Amino acid sequence: MHRIKKVPLQLIIIAIVLLATVISLGTTGILLQQVIESNERQIINLRLKNIAQMAAKDSTVVNSLSSGASQADRSAVQSYAQRLTKSENIDFVVVLNSDLVRLSHPNVKQIGKKFSSPRDAAPTLRGQSHFSKKMGILGLGYRYFVPVYSDTHNIIGVVSVGLTEDTISQSIKTARRPILMGLIIGLLIGIIGSILLAKRLKKVLLNMEPHVIAKKLVEKNTIENSMMEGLLVIDDDHTIIATNSMANQLLPDIGHVGDKLAVAIYQTFFTVISRDNNTHRVVFNAREYLCSAAKLTYPEVGALVLFRDITDLKEIVEELDGTKQYAQALRAQTHEFMNKLQAISGLIELNKYDQVMALIPQLTNDYHQNVGYVTSHIKMPVIAGFLIGKINYAKEHEVSLILRETSSMPELSISGKEITNVIKIVGNLIDNAVDAVAFQNTQTIDLLIQYDEDGRALIIEIIDSGIGMPIEQYDLILSAGFSTKGAHRGYGLATINDIIMAHQGFIDINSEPNKGTRIYIEYPLEIRGA
């Protein structure tokens, strides 16, 4: 099946403009021709009337008719009529006596004969001047009759002045010629204008045909609406240029194309343009979004932002982070027990049963001292078990992690999410502290976990003997990705800060280079049933 070939837009535009030009010029031309013909006939009427009146008053005509029109008089009248015909550019001047006998005529043979249309001339003998269109000797003619008066004001004859229809038609054609030239020039201008307009539109449309533009628009909308990210484009006046379905789904109150973007949305999503080209996390209506914004530079008409809701994803990641911290603590604890079991196993293989019997009470005593100390201060089993694992983790790295004597956390009725948050906060603090003291002569970490019943907040304080940091880095370390320990690091304190800020808590950092770091946190807890 053959596909119908699409007519190029340029050709369509030229054809439409030319058709409109031809119709317009044609209609104008017809109306102008009618006006010109009417005006030309009025001018001819006026000329004929003036010439006839002038001839009727001429002394040669009046005297000849008054004297009875002898042969000499007829000759004089004929000569006068020929001169008048030639000078006034008319076809004939016919002088008739009162009996309607011709005294002059373009055809000399007609002189002395009766007028061919006596009925046409009769009203003139009664004093009536009038126009007439009749078939005569010279053909169809248009003429004006006027009476000739004697000195005593008696009608003594008639003067008929006229033009043939052929002469009138030629005169009208001559008058129409400039109009025809104007129409031709107008048509040429229309052709040139249509070509230039077609080329201009083609350039504006990037040399694409309408069906190609329609196809690309459909493809563009399909691609945009298939994106997992929200798309929002605005101009310099903060008017929405484009959105996709995901943007309307993530921000139902975003508005429509052509609407002004809400100030709150602009300040949240577009202020990141001035920072850098990286992605940023922003919070809007209690939801967290990952967004990337850029300036539209060609042409510079506004800005574009891509954004994705990461609130649910962040919660999952936070839970995984807490699970990771707990798993790490369990692994360290398992590793500690495996070392002890391997020691016992080795002694048994060497038949050193007496040493086995001596080692088991010692290990049991150490275990109870360790576990008993932590569980006596921390009554939450999950938190206590986690801390025991972290103490063993620190011991593996030859770091002394000490739970302060004043630590106290009763068994509280809190959600699993709150427990996960506490594990993430404490776990990240301990991990950072272990890294900070790794190359120090003194490798100690002092940890305080204390529940403030009046404020219903968990107070966490950690002091390490690590490398410390200058004061100008205090704010930077709370930003995701900032780290002095290399790439793909710097998310621990950022995670802690996000949790604390989300719960309207408090965090304070004090540090000096090569003297250590102190971090103090107040984390409000949501107690069930309180």
From TrEMBL:
EC numbers for this chain: 2.7.13.3
Signal peptide from the UniProt entry: none
Superkingdom in the source lineage: Bacteria
Database matches in SMART domains: HATPase_c
Keyword annotations of the record: ATP-binding, Cell membrane, Kinase, Membrane, Nucleotide-binding, Phosphoprotein, Transferase, Transmembrane, Transmembrane helix, Two-component regulatory system
Domain Histidine kinase: start-end pairs: 422-527
Transmembrane stretches, start-end: 12-32, 179-198
Enzyme class: transferase
Key word Phosphoprotein present: yes
SUPFAM superfamilies from the UniProt entry: ATPase domain of HSP90 chaperone/DNA topoisomerase II/histidine kinase, Sensory domain-like, Sporulation response regulatory protein Spo0B
Gene3D superfamilies: 1.10.287.130, Histidine kinase-like ATPase, C-terminal domain, PAS domain
Membrane topology qualifier: Multi-pass membrane protein
Record flagged with keyword Transferase: yes
UniProt protein name: histidine kinase
Organism for this UniProt entry: Leuconostoc kimchii
